[in-house]
Amino acid sequence: TTQDQLKRATARAAVETIAPKLEADSIVGVGTGSTANFFIDYLAEIKGRFDGTVASSEASAERLKSHGIPVYDLNSVDGIRVYVDGADETNPALQLIKGGGAALTREKIVAACAEEFVCIADESKWVPVLGSFPLPVEVIPMARSLVARELVKLGGDPVYRQGVVTDNGNVILDVHNLEIMEPVALEEAINNITGVVTNGIFALRPADLLLLGTAAGVKAFSA
Ligand code: DER
User: Fold this and answer.
1) ipTM, 2 decimals?
2) E strand or H helix at 210, and its extent?
3) Residue of 16, 45, 62, 107 marked active site
4) Per residue in 197-215, pLDDT tens?
5) To which H or E segment does residue 15 belong?
6) Which residues pair with 97 in a beta bridge?
7) Engineering a disulfide at 99: which of 90, 117, 128, 200 sits with its beta carbon 3.0 to 4.6 angstroms away?
8) Are the C-beta atoms of residues 208 and 94 closer than 8 Å to each other?
9) Could you tell me which of 57, 52, 62, 58 has the C-alpha nearest to residue 24?
10) Distance separating alpha carbons of residues 120 and 91, to the nearest angstrom
11) 65 is in an annotated binding site
């Protein structure tokens, strides 16, 4: 099975998992990335079963609209029944690294509003310890060098993601060589660096359910 087949399988499993939870006025939070794109395409098959969506990126919003699925501004909805999104890494506690697609800030915002966060990922994302994937950090442009110096003090090797400006007009530093033994502590430490908007550790608010696409089928893990 190819990686795309695993991503498709986990995305389909997510639609099957959330469908019974949805009511006519439910709002579904939708993530960003290639796995999330498969989820959007399968979500369209049940678009009559819920009211609409909130998207974590302009790209996902456009894909949803192309299927005729309503996309709302987060400030105009009362709550989000479930948020479905991918990840770059997940550890056994369902603490994640996200941000490979540069959408980490809106992803974290929508996840924070959701009753339940369902993470969809192929087995290549499963790691015992977070940090092999360079940690994305969204930074206010003028603070890029300040934040880079502070990240070095935390043991990282920050690399400027050239040519990328986020939906919020900020830049991204990808931090290499972190072995994240204490995800919550590091997430808080990076949040406290002046100039940081968001970092890609999702540990203060981990996923509630992980649907992991494996060669032996889709496996479900709860936090
Ligand atoms: O940028 C993100 O956080 C995405 O969810 C990313 O981590 C997963 O992207 P993929 O589904 O294309 O691997």
Assistant:
1) 0.97
2) strand 209-214
3) 107
4) 999 999 999 999 999 999 9
5) helix 3-18
6) 89, 201
7) 200
8) yes
9) 52
10) 13
11) no
